[in-house]
Specification:
Structural class: alpha+beta
Number of strands: 10
Order of helices and strands: HHHEEEHEHEEHHEHEEE
């Protein structure tokens, strides 16, 4: 039996929800089933209505889900990913205790369409360097990013960049520091190869982030990035 503070100003169901929250964090994995409402009512010495109220609170938080006729199951918790002026994928996930890897999908020169040209201050059909990268955390695909750079500023970037941080490569070879000045986030359904590459159902949304990075010295736009995150694996904390 788990003792509750019966005389506390905090409601009983809220106390139970807090205990279950701690139990899940310490002892449960994604997909595990919680004890039945009957067993939980016995443990906390309350009626099943109070247990149901506590579980409803966890459902609203996205911690668990109730499956009719089967029970209550633990959901995977999204990774808290900070979007800041100098966000670095590898560094961010390393600080979260996760391993990272990447797969370069494309490295090509293409003519800028109207949208890319507008974001980079170019003319339509000006040459841009396009690099597309699939990034993983703990071997699970997290995001697919398409990065566009004006070829006039980075004429040999395709040869210079082999792997790792794009911005570190730019700093090393061109002595330029980039910083993010804008990120536009929207929820959309995945398109094209995104479904396959991100290993997700085509009916689940992605978080699409359109970002502009500029030269830290003079504000010249030098990178337009279009990143697609799996919405159920990540939550974005905007801190610009």
């Amino acid at each position: 039996m788990t003792l509750l503070q019966r005389n506390s100003t905090e409601k009983i169901y809220s106390q139970i929800a807090q205990v279950l929250r701690q139990d899940i964090r310490k002892h449960y994995q994604t997909g595990d089933c919680l004890a039945s409402e009957f067993d939980l009512a016995e443990r906390f010495q309350v009626n099943r209505h109070t247990i149901r109220h506590a579980i409803d609170a966890l459902i609203q938080e996205g911690v668990v889900e109730r499956r009719h006729g089967k029970g209550t199951f633990v959901l995977s918790q999204p990774i808290d990913y900070t979007v800041a002026q100098k966000t670095r994928f590898t560094e961010t996930f390393k600080n979260l205790g996760k391993t990272t890897s990447m797969q370069i999908r494309r490295k090509i020169i293409i003519p800028a369409d109207a949208s890319i040209a507008k974001h980079l201050g170019l003319k339509a059909n000006d040459d841009v360097v396009c690099i597309e990268i699939l990034r993983f955390a703990d071997q699970q695909p997290i995001c697919l990013s398409s990065h566009y750079f004006p070829k006039s500023h980075f004429p040999d970037f395709l040869e210079q960049y082999q792997t790792g941080s794009l911005h570190a490569c730019i700093h090393r070879h061109y002595q330029l520091q980039l910083k993010r000045v804008e990120s536009l986030v929207s929820a959309v359904l995945p398109q094209g190869d995104d479904v396959t590459l991100l290993c997700m159902p085509k009916t689940h949304p992605i978080l699409r982030v359109k970002s502009i990075n500029v030269n830290e010295r003079d504000g010249t736009p030098l990178e337009y990035a279009l990143t697609r995150f799996c919405a159920d694996r990540i939550q974005l904390r905007i801190n610009l």
